[in-house]
Amino acid sequence: METEQAIESFRNAYAALRAEIGKVIVGQEEIVESTVIALFAGGHVLLEGVPGLGKTLLVRTLSEVLDLSFNRIQFTPDLMPADILGTNIVMETQGGRREFQFQRGPIFGHLILADEINRATPKTQSALLEAMQEHQVTAGGEIRKTR
Question: Which of these, 47, 76, 84, 91, could form a disulfide with 55 (CB 3.0-4.6 Å)?
Answer without folding.
Answer: 47
